[in-house]
Each structure stands twice: as structure tokens, then as C-alpha cells.
Amino acid sequence: MPDLLLELFSEEIPARMQARAAEDMRKLVTDRLVDAGLVYEGAKAFATPRRLALTVHGIPLRQPDLKEERKGPKVGAPEQAIAGFLRAAGLTSIDQAKVQSDKKGDFYVAVTEKKGRPAIDVIAEIVPEVVRAFPWPKSMRWGSGRLNWVRPLHSIVATFGPETEEPEIVPFTIDGIAAGNQTRGHRFMAPTAFTVRHFDDYAAKLQDAKVVLDPARRAEMISTDAKNLAFAQGFELVEDEGLLAEVSGLVEWPVVLMGAFDKAFLSIPNEVIRATIRNNQKCFVLRDPQTAKLVNKFILVANEEASDDGKAIVAGNERVIRARLSDAKFFYETDLKTRLEVRLPKFEQIVFHEKLGTQEQRISRIVALAGQLAPLVGADVAKAERAAQLCKADLLTEVVGEFPELQGLMGRYYAEAQNEDEAIAHACEDHYKPKGPDDLVPSDPISVAVALADKIDTLVGFWAIDDKPTGSKDPYALRRAALGVIRIILDNNLPLAPRGVVEWHFEHQFKKQYLDVASAIDNLMVFFEDRLTVQLRDQRARHDLVDSVLSNASLVEGHRLTLIVCRIEALGKFLDTDDGKNLLAGVKRASNIIRIEEKKDKREYTGAPNPALYKQDEEMALAEAIAVAKRDASTAVAKEDFAAVMTAMAKLRPFVDTFFDKVTVNVDDKALRENRLKLLNEIREATRAVADFSRIEG
Amino acid sequence: MAKADLRARAPARPSNLDPTRSFQGLILTLQQYWADQGCVILQPYDMEVGAGTFHPATTLRALGPKPWNAAYVQPSRRPKDGRYGENPNRLQHYYQFQVILKPSPPDIQDLYLNSLKAIGIDPSIHDIRFVEDDWESPTLGAWGLGWECWCDGMEVSQFTYFQQVAGFECAPVAGELTYGLERLAMYVQGVERVYDLNFNGRDDDKKVTYGDVFLQAEREYSKHNFEVADTAMLFEQFKMAEAACRKYLEAGWNGERTRHALALPAYDQCIKASHVFNLLDARGVISVTERQSYILRVRELAKACGEAWLATEGGGAA
């Protein structure tokens, strides 16, 4: 079966767009092939800086013929109806129609055959449509044309045919660019056009013309060569997946070279050197495998084999890196001359958010909250406040201005340089953590206090001005902040109820700005509960257990986060036991009976049952067991011993089982029935000490 | 070092005009090259601007249907970038070499690469790369897509396909090339400090350096830009330029608002307002929030000027 080869050859495609574009091209073309009835065997797409290429193999030569059946009137229908049918079906005589029968009798059916078109004609329609509507993140026009592409599109290869034969050119033209079978190689090393046939031929000729088509192979070549070059000199490559992907998208023919810089620059913090070399120059750095410290070498990836073996290229890159590093060194040394606290007044001029005031105001809120939280998390109040005061100061430094991703880290370096307490210096860096689901959670009490204060201030602030995340829009990363708060509290087992902290902060900082404080706080607590649910689900906790506990002991009601999680854990363990399973079944049975009877009687069966009405021993026994379980459970809850709560509950089980075995609830005696229903309700109530069992599945 | 290789490959011309050893030689070579491609070689615009793009030969000529190919040097002023002559490569006044080709020709990348060859950058030993860089000028209401052009890891030019200028769609599209001349010269001359550039390509006592020409100016203007510039006067000048721009725009329209007779004088006032804003910004007297509103005010002027230009002969009005 024939194969399709497609190449769209353009000026340089941004590296970050290439992978997605290749995938989009594959999907858009193959989806349409399938829609057109052309089911293919396989497809693969590739991208280089100058081309998108697609191979689709095993496409049928033609679309399948389509049989279309059109149901007509009954045999013996009026002439008019028959004439209308013939016209609509394109028949000249009723003899051309078939007769079929169903329950209602015989009727005419017109069978028309739609001949499948040659695949090449279908492809000639599909490709221009795909090109014209291609989903580039940003596209442009050029010259006098109207076509939109990521950068000017120069030529198109589109060949189609069986592997063993000379393929045909798919006949189409897009804005004056006619599809053909010619392409070009490397911009400088093989600029002359050449003819290609099928994909294998294409890829091989490109390789000869100094183009490695497959981005994965380019990445692998770069990675291998870089590691080997490093190893040969006793160094180790600092691997960087993001940079590797980007650099693979900047070259068609990777040539890995090593350069060096003055050792004096190694006095700059390693992270600053790396950011300078990586962000500005897209080069890799190397380290000494013994000390894990950077060495004065870097790896660059050129796009060609230079006739002087890369001497000029290395010299040029070294020169630029020297200039960049001397800028970085200058920035770093300039920063060290000013103490962090001296920078703070500048924050009065910098707006954090138009409704939430300046950075200075924000920092003073964080200081106040960190001071408030300190005793609760075991931190020294004065130190926590000092750390909160300094934690944002590095935003005003030259190095962070140049490399925003080094915020926090530079704060730590500068705090250390001015001999701040170790814990305070670390808080400058760690208060941003956890930055994502895989990031570490701070554990030092000072860092914990500042990290919580920073995040809670942001959350409370945006809730106070009613600017909450909606759908996929979360520009201030509030979900991440809430999850951060949850993880810090849980990982450090902090005895904090988020509601209390949030209320305090609202009260002291945002009271005037928001009229309905209580409902804003409720809403924020629900937001926390949602984050908690997601977090626990990721840890494979059963969502129904989370639900049942939260509906009983919620953050909205001011419960402590750690206790909620303990409850969920204890409940999960309990329900894994026979006692748990049977009790759950009993409670569910009780709940179901009550629900049905309440619906029937249009009333509720709540309130204490009357012991005088107990007629059977099993009723008495159950009532007593419930009283004991309630008492024991509430003592255990007070002690926050949820295992003991479960033990108390477990004791209920035999009494519930026996009750259902021996006692009939729906008896004719109305008073007795009511009393028994109330007793059933007591089972439900007793278990509420732990969770709302009705929300548990199973 | 790269220098020797570069020099060996530079085209033959008098040594004092060799682009790899003479700043003026570099400029003259680029002018010659683009003149040979059919560009009109203009002289710098006689007003203070922040970049070559502000020259009406780019901003306004990029608008409208008429073909236009031009190249020129534009002294560019970025008051905030002043470093009192102490930074090896930051200047508050520097030269851009600007090329505008409308409609952008299909071989514009090759034309550009050949211009690099002309100034001694041989792509067979240098690693030339087109790295994504989208351009946007909030004050001009303009944007385009293109690249930074890298030579051995150094950005030597900006390459932009204009999509919109003054809020109007560019059709046809103009291709814009901007060479940062000092940086390029430092590279081909192998010099680490801009003030050490050989300006005239002579040796010994006949040699004039970039520092000889501009170091004093950098010191004086840095002091002026950051410390002394009369802010009360500048605020007043901004208002005056803005008012004059609006006045000329209004006066230029014919009765049916189909033709405009004062697009260029009005645009001058827009340029003036923009430069005055840059000076005020350097003096640190514009707050973060005000900053945005000033940019918006200049953009409104630029848009109105673009609209006026499209109603002139140069802008292709019937």
C-alpha cells in the first residue's frame, strides 16, 4: 500500500513550538484521512528548526466505495410518490430499485453506489486545509501573501505512492507554493536542493545533507557527546532536560563543543553561574564529580561542523560568556554591598496588587502573621518576624532582577553573607516551598512560620478582594498556595486549625475591605477542603471516606487538619476489619429503614427513645451499648485517639447485628414502632462521632 | 581568538575601512551592501529616538501598500541605560543600523546572511542561529514575529516581520533588520570594552577610538539623565508635545477626513513625547502605575499618526 511523505519547509520555527507542531500535524492529517475512509497503518512526525515532516504509511490507493440505501414508498404507492422517489434517488425507472419487506409490507429501496476517490486526490484536499488552519500558538504573515504560518513557509514536499515505485507528487498549491519533491539540507553545509521519494529515502538524504530529522536522536546525540566530552576531562555534565529539549530544537546538525571561562568567576554562587550560562547562552555547565561544585567549563551545541573545527565558535562563545559572567559577578558583588534590610523602604514604591497594596504593606502583614504563628509551630517569635521581614528583600537585588528564578536562594546567600541567624537565612529560601507537588516541604520552625504566613496572606488577601481562581484560571497560583499550607501543616504534624489562623488574619488585616467576612472565610475553607481532597486522592485515600469525615468534622467548622486526616486513616483501617464492615452494613441498614419510613410518614424520627417502651432484651442491650459507645467515643475523641474511637464503635457491632436478627421495627403498635425507629437513629448518631457513615460506599 | 580568522576572510578594501578594524568601515560596508540590494540609504532622523524603528522611514513607511526599501544608521537614546561611561557595553546613546524591506522579499534571510559575510562574518566558521524573539513596542502599538540572530552565542541583530504598526495591520508585511553596531563592531574587532573600539581604522597617533568620540558624552548625559534633567520642564514638554501632536493631527484632516496633510509633523511630536517620557522615567519621577498611563498616551498619539499617514500619498491613499 502507498505511503505519504509530507514536509513543510520554513524559516526557523521556535524551539518551544516544534514538538507540539509535529504532533498536531500528525493528528490533523491522519484524523482527516480516517474521516475520509482512508485507514492507514502507521504515522510518525518530526520537527527540526526548519521543517515539519510527516510520514504516513499503508494508505489504501482509493477510498472504499460507499453503498447508500434510500428507503422509498410502498410497492403500489401512488404514481406521484414513486416519481418523487425516483427523482430523489437519481433513478430513471422503478425497475432499478430493489424491493424489500418489513412488518408493514413491501417497499422500494434505491441502492446507489458512491465510487471511492483516489487517495491522492483526497490528500490533495486535506493537506491545504490542515496548513491553512494550523494551530500555531502564534503565527504571522509575510511579504504580500495572506497565508499564516509560524514563520515564512518556503516549500512543500508531498509524495504519495507504493514503496517500490517512484511516488507521485500530490497535486496542490497553497498561496503560490506548489507541492513538489524537492527539499534542502543544512542551511550552511548543504544548501542545494535535492529530490526525495519516500520517507526512508528522505531521511537518508537529509542525513547526507547534514540534517538529523528526528529530534529525539538529536537530543540523544547531544546528551551522549556532552557526557563524553565532560568525562574525558574528568568532569560530569549537569544534566538539564529542559535545556536539552530546547537546544535540540535550535540545531539540525548538532556539534557539541567545550569552552572555558576564567576560574575567578567560580567565586559567584554556582546557581548564578548556571543561570547565566543556561538562560542567556543556552549552554550546559559541568561539575567536579568529587565535590559536586561547578568547574570553569561549559558545553555549547553548535549547528555545524566548522572548517576550523569550531575554534572560532568556541572563542566567540567564551567571549560572550565572559562578558555575561562579569556582569553577573558585578551584580552579585554590588548586591553584597547593601544589607537586605536597607533595601526594604523601596518596597513602599512597589505595588504588589492594586487592591492589596504595596509590597511593603504585604510584608508587614506577613511579619504580623508569622509572629502570630511562631509559638504555634515552635518557632522563636522574634526570629520568625525577622525572617518574614527579610524574606522578600532579594527581589530588589540585581541578581534576582536578572534571574527571577533565583529568588529566595539569593535571599539566603545574602542573609548568610550578612551573618543572619542560620534559620533566618534558610527561611529566606524555604518560605517559597513547596513550589510544586514534588517540592520539599520546609521543616525548620522559622521557615514553617514564614512559609505559612506568606501563603495564608496571599490566600486571605485574594479572598478579601473576591478575586478567586475560576476554572482553569489561577493567575496567582492560589491552588498551589493552599496545597502548600496543607502539606506544611500535615508533614510537620502541626496542631493548627486553618480557620482560626485565617480568621485572625482577616480580623487584623482585611476587616475593612470585605463586608461579609464570615462567608469569605467559609468559602476559603471549602477551597482548602477541595485541595485536601485532591491531595488525599493523589495519596490513594478513598474519596468517600474523605467525604464522610469532612461532612462531620470540616475545616469550615474550624477542625484541625491533622485530626481530620487521622480520622480518615483510622476510619479506613476500621472499615478493613470485619467489625467495621458489619457495623457499616448495620448503620446503613438502619439509615435506610429510617429514610424509607420517614418518607412514608412524612416526619423525622429523631430524639431520644423512651426506655419505658423497650419490650425486648435486644432493644435494651442495644440502647445500653449505644450509650457506652457514645461515652467511650467522645472520651477518645477528646483525647484525639481515633483508634480508640474505632474500638468503641466496634463494640456496637454485635448488638446491632442481634437487634436486626431478633427485633422487628415496623410493628403495628405505633408507639413501639416510633420508639424503635428512634433507637435506629441512635445508631446513626453514635457513629457520627467518627464520620457520616451514609456517605461511605460499600 | 576569533579575530584573526575574521580578518583573514574580510573582503578586500582599504585597511582603514576594513569592517573588522574600523567602526566607520563597518557602517560604510553595511551601507554599501544594502545600497547594492536596492535600498535607499537615508541619514539618521534629526530627532531623539529610542530605536531605529521610530524613524518615520520605518514606523510610517511600514504602513500602507507601497513598496519601500531603505537602510540607515540611527543614533538611539536610552536614557536609563547610561552608566557614566563605566560599563564596558552599556550606553545611553548608541548606533543602530536599520534596514526595512517592504514587502519582505522571499530571500530576506539570505540577504541578511550575506550582509554578515560582507562585514567579515563567515558562516562556514561561525555558528549563525535564528533564535525566537517576538518584538513588541507598546508605545508604538506595534508588534511582529522574528528572531534574535546569534553569532557564536552573541546576539548581533534583531529580525522582525512587522505584523502591526500604530495599531494597523501591515499588508504587505515589512521585514525589519536591526544591527546593534557597537556590539557587532566589538565582536569583529575582538574588543572587550566599547570605548576601545577603533573608530576610524587608523593606527598609532592617527587612531581615534569610540571612547575619544563618545566617553565624555556618556558621562555628561548619564549625569544629566539621572540627576539633573529638569523634570518640571520635561513634564511640561510632554504635555506640550502631546497637545501639539493632537493639534496638528486635527488640523491635517480635510473636510471629509479622507486625506491628511500633516502626518509627518504630527508624528514628530509623538516621537518627542516618547523621548521626554524616557527621560522622566530615567529620572525616576514616574511611578509604576503612572508609567503605564504615559505609555498609553504615547500609543494613542502613535495610532492617530498612523491613521493620518494612511490618508497621505506616502501611505497609499488614493
Provide keyphrases for this structure:
heterodimer; A: alpha+beta; Alpha-Beta Plaits; seven-stranded mixed sheet; 25 helices; 50% helix; flat; B: alpha+beta; BirA Bifunctional Protein, domain 2; Methane Monooxygenase Hydroxylase, Chain G, domain 1; 2 domains; nine-stranded mixed sheet; 41% helix; disordered N terminus
Detailed description of the structure:
The complex is a heterodimer of chains A (698) and B (318). By secondary structure, chain A is an alpha+beta fold. Chain A contains 25 helices and 18 strands. In chain A, the strands form five sheets. In chain A, strands 1, 2, 3, 7, 8, 9 and 10 form a seven-stranded mixed sheet that branches. Chain A has a four-stranded antiparallel sheet with strand order 13-15-16-14, with helices on both faces. Chain A is flat and about 100 Å long. With 318 residues, chain B is of the alpha+beta class. Chain B folds into two domains: 2-224, Bira Bifunctional Protein, Domain 2 (BirA Bifunctional Protein, domain 2, 2-Layer Sandwich); 230-309, Methane Monooxygenase Hydroxylase, Chain G, domain 1, CATH 1.20.58. In chain B, 41% of the residues lie in helices and 19% in strands. In chain B, strands 1, 2, 3, 4, 5, 6, 7, 8 and 9 form a nine-stranded mixed sheet that branches. Mean pLDDT of chain B is 93; it is low at 1-10.
Could you give the topology of this structure?
The complex is a heterodimer of chains A (698) and B (318).
Chain A: E1 3-10, H1 15-35, E2 42-48, E3 51-57, E4 66-74, H2 79-89, E5 98-102, E6 105-114, H3 119-132, E7 153-161, E8 168-169, E9 173-174, E10 177-180, E11 182-184, E12 193-195, H4 199-208, H5 215-232, E13 236-237, H6 241-248, E14 255-260, H7 270-281, E15 284-287, E16 294-302, H8 311-336, H9 340-343, E17 351-353, E18 357-358, H10 359-377, H11 381-390, H12 398-402, H13 409-417, H14 422-430, H15 445-464, H16 478-491, H17 498-510, H18 517-538, H19 543-550, H20 561-575, H21 578-601, H22 617-638, H23 642-650, H24 653-662, H25 670-687
Parallel strand pairs in A: 7-10
Antiparallel strand pairs in A: 1-3, 1-7, 2-3, 4-6, 5-6, 7-8, 9-10, 11-12, 13-15, 14-16, 15-16, 17-18
Helix pairs in contact in A: 1-3, 5-6, 7-8, 10-11, 10-15, 11-14, 11-15, 13-14, 14-15, 15-16, 15-17, 15-18, 16-18, 17-18, 18-19, 19-20, 20-23, 21-24, 21-25, 22-23, 22-24, 22-25
Chain B: H1 2-9, H2 23-36, E1 40-41, H3 56-59, E2 68-77, E3 93-102, H4 108-118, E4 128-132, E5 135-137, E6 142-151, E7 154-165, E8 168-169, E9 175-180, H5 181-189, H6 210-228, H7 231-252, H8 263-282, H9 288-309
Parallel strand pairs in B: 1-2
Antiparallel strand pairs in B: 2-3, 3-9, 4-6, 5-6, 6-7, 7-8, 7-9
Helix pairs in contact in B: 7-8, 7-9, 8-9
